[in-house]
Every structure is written in C-alpha cells, then in structure tokens.
Automatic annotation (TrEMBL):
The keyword Nucleus does not apply. GO terms for molecular function: ER retention sequence binding. The chain crosses the membrane at residues 62-80, 120-138, 150-168, 180-199. It comes from Nyctibius grandis. This is ER lumen protein-retaining receptor. The lineage of its organism: Eukaryota, Metazoa, Chordata, Craniata, Vertebrata.
Length: 214
C-alpha cells in the first residue's frame, strides 16, 4: 500500500465526516442530495460484498465497514431523522438515467462474468457518476454552503489521489486496472469545474454561487 492510496482513503473518510458533522450540527440536510447519498450507499454495498468471502487486511476490513456504516447513517439522517429539511424539489435528478446504463455496462464490460465481479464492476461504474445528482442540485439552486463545498472538495481529492495511486502502482508493480482507472478519470473530470470555483471563490472566503439557469 502506498502513500497516495492512504491519503486518498483519508480524504474520502474526511469528506464523509464533514458531511455527517454538517448535518448533525445544523440539524438540517438542506443543500445535500439524498439521491447522491443513496447511490454512494449502493456503491459501498455492492463493492464490499467480499467482506464475507475474502480477508485482505485489518485496515482494509475496518475501512470498508466504516464506509458502509457512514453511508447508511447519512441516508438515515436525510430521509428519516431530518427529513423535514430535505429539499426534495431541487433533488430531482432521475436516477434511472444513471442506473440503467451503469447496470448494462457492468454486464458487458467486466473482468469475469461472476455475480461478485459484476457487482464490483457495477460499483466502480456507479461511483464515477454518483455525484451527478449533487452537482445537478447545486446547478438548480445556484449556490452551495461552504461546508458542502468542503465535502465535495475532499471527495474529489480522494479520486485525484487514487489516480496518482494507479500511476504509482503501474510503474512500481506493473499493475493496471482499466475499469477502475477509466472510471476514476471520468469521475475526476466531473469535479474539474468545481475545483476551479473552490480555489477561486471558497478558499478566498466567498460563497460558491453559479449562474441560475434561464
């Protein structure tokens, strides 16, 4: 395990912690896409089924369990505990536009045609687009709270660090996973505009705002 993967995992975990603390402290899930959080919970569920079949390391097992628990706690907070603050009107992205093509692609392009492998592939493809409902929500409202932008920044940083991890593994281990790499690059591309706005506005103390659609 190299430093890029560890930093990527830490960045990912930090993003989730920021989100959970934001919701708990404000007792509101305003500005948070519940649909994105459902997709992330689905990503972790389908990816970490190997918890029941394969032991890799204590670190690997603990991180998987933490991500699973946090994902479902987030969904619970949005749809149950603080459901009155949930902005369902603006969280209107059609999930079938993501789930249908991702499901089809996972059957067509995978490492081996077995249930666990297809589900793992599904999780990789789905993660690359799971943030789209959140970005769509921001584009509809025209702005995002500062704490929400911090969450998105660390989530995007996690993918960028994983790209560095794959580059490192390619040159040190001659390891290359086309499905994971291509999906990770696609996911990082979705964050590019956000990264620019984060650096030019949020880090300068300004609120992230977007032009409202006509």
């Amino acid at each position: 395990m190299n430093v890029f993967r560890i930093l990527g995992d830490v960045s990912h975990l930090l993003a989730i912690i920021i989100l959970l603390l934001k919701i708990q402290k404000s007792k509101s899930c305003a500005g948070i896409s519940g649909k994105s959080q459902i997709l992330f919970a689905l990503v972790f569920t389908t990816r970490y089924l190997d918890l029941f079949t394969t032991f890799i390391s204590v670190y690997n097992t603990v991180m998987k369990v933490i991500f699973l628990i946090c994902a479902y706690i987030t969904v619970y907070m949005i749809y149950v505990k603080f459901r009155k603050t949930f902005d369902s009107e603006n969280d209107s992205f059609r999930l079938e536009f993501l789930l249908v093509p991702v499901t089809g692609l996972s059957f067509l392009e995978n490492h081996s045609f077995t249930p666990l492998e297809i589900l793992w592939t599904f999780s990789i493809y789905l993660e690359s687009v799971a943030i789209l409902p959140q970005l769509f929500m921001i584009s509809k409202t025209g702005e995002a709270e500062t704490i929400t932008t911090h969450y998105l920044f660390f989530l995007g940083l996690y993918r960028a660090l994983y790209i560095a991890n794959w580059v490192w593994r390619y040159y040190t281990e001659n390891f290359y996973d086309q499905i994971a790499v291509v999906s990770g690059v696609v996911q990082t591309i979705f964050y590019c505009d956000f990264f620019y706005l984060y650096v030019t506005k949020v880090l300068k103390g300004k609120k992230l705002s977007l032009p409202m659609p006509v």
